[in-house]
Amino acid sequence: MLLSFVYWAFHHDKRNKHHVYLFYILALNLTNELLSTLLKLLELPLQLSASFYNVVHCMLWLSLLSTTSGRRKTGRRLIKTYLAFCVFDFIVLEPGLHNFKVYSLVIGAVMYTYWMIADSMERLKSEDLAYFSSNTYTLLSAPIVFFVGFSLLMGFKLKGINTMPIYGVPFFTLVCYFVNAVYYITTAIFMYREKQRHDGT
To answer: Is the pLDDT of residue 1 over 80?
Structure first.
């Protein structure tokens, strides 16, 4: 995570919106990791900060997807709707410092995944097949496994399964490692291809 952020901080093109959004996302991820570590050291609850992170993280990816799809008005409406739901969730559905806002995570994940699929279907219908091998598609695919994986883990609240050890490691921890690995490997592929493209020009 740290290496990805440091590398991209020096290599992203500030004129490229995809680059800028990825920089913001990586900066957010690093900030969340540092804050979580600090809260653990201070023995303070992590749920509220993690919930805020999930909301901002999802909004950034939705913004990036709306920019790429060319439907910024639709994106703004979705983000406003999502933000309004999150406020309702934080205050009414799952209030308190010690409650992780599961509904906000799940709704955000569903919104992004549904829009990603809908946009892909439209491009298939228009026979824009080159899009699916593009680096942009690689970037937009990065959070899918992350969103789906954590939504399934947190949404069903199956503590028995989440704590079940597999080769001595809790199932929840293994899934966390897997979804994060997919997330950062995919973004690393995007960064590598962008560097190759830049060096080739």
So the answer is: no
